[in-house]
Write a structure and sequence with these properties.
Layout: H1 7-13, E1 14-15, E2 18-19, H2 63-78, H3 93-101, E3 115-122, E4 128-137, E5 140-151, E6 154-162
Antiparallel strand pairs: 1-2, 3-4, 4-5, 5-6
Length: about 160
């Protein structure tokens, strides 16, 4: 009959009954890769010859000025002060339809027009700008979340939410 090893020798090779992890036997170098943009399609199917192509930042307008102008335009559209056709070329069809359903959602009953307060931008990968902003409408503050993708040498708004 064989005896189990003494409790002391067992504790030296394991922690609470589990063996120690020795690690990999050889070093595996991390892959050298780069994240890249795959344009948002919202389920649309394109012929590969005519599909949207991501654009490098060098071929796109200044994202700071462009996103600010776009947000101001959408705020004015939602307040009913500007026609929605003005953002048609720079907005994905899916997002355009969602914005068009919200026209008039910003109440203009007060004296003051909606005012863009603060804009925060981030660029998670090249050719993508994600924006969060706050707007004041009379005494109320609301938030905006939007995503812009550089496609075919122009910025396209692919997501927009007024919260």
């Amino acid at each position: 009959m064989q005896r189990n090893p003494s409790p002391m020798s067992y504790r030296q090779n394991s922690a609470e009954g589990l063996p120690f992890y020795e690690g990999p036997t050889e070093f595996i170098a991390p892959a050298k890769g780069k994240l890249y943009l795959i344009p948002t399609t919202h389920g649309e199917i394109f012929d590969p010859a005519f599909s949207p192509l991501p654009s490098p930042l060098t071929s796109l307008p200044d994202p700071i000025r462009w996103t600010r102008a776009y947000l101001i335009s959408v705020i004015e559209i939602l307040a009913g002060r500007r026609p929605i056709k003005q953002i048609a070329r720079s907005t994905h069809r899916f997002t355009f339809n969602n914005i068009s359903k919200e026209i008039g959602s910003i109440n203009m009953s007060g004296r003051n027009a909606p005012r863009l307060r603060k804009i925060y931008r981030s660029e998670p990968i090249e050719g993508v700008v994600e924006v969060s902003a706050t707007i004041s409408i009379d005494a109320r503050v609301r938030a905006i979340a939007a995503r812009f993708e550089g496609v075919d040498h122009r910025w396209i708004c692919t997501e927009f939410d007024l919260i």
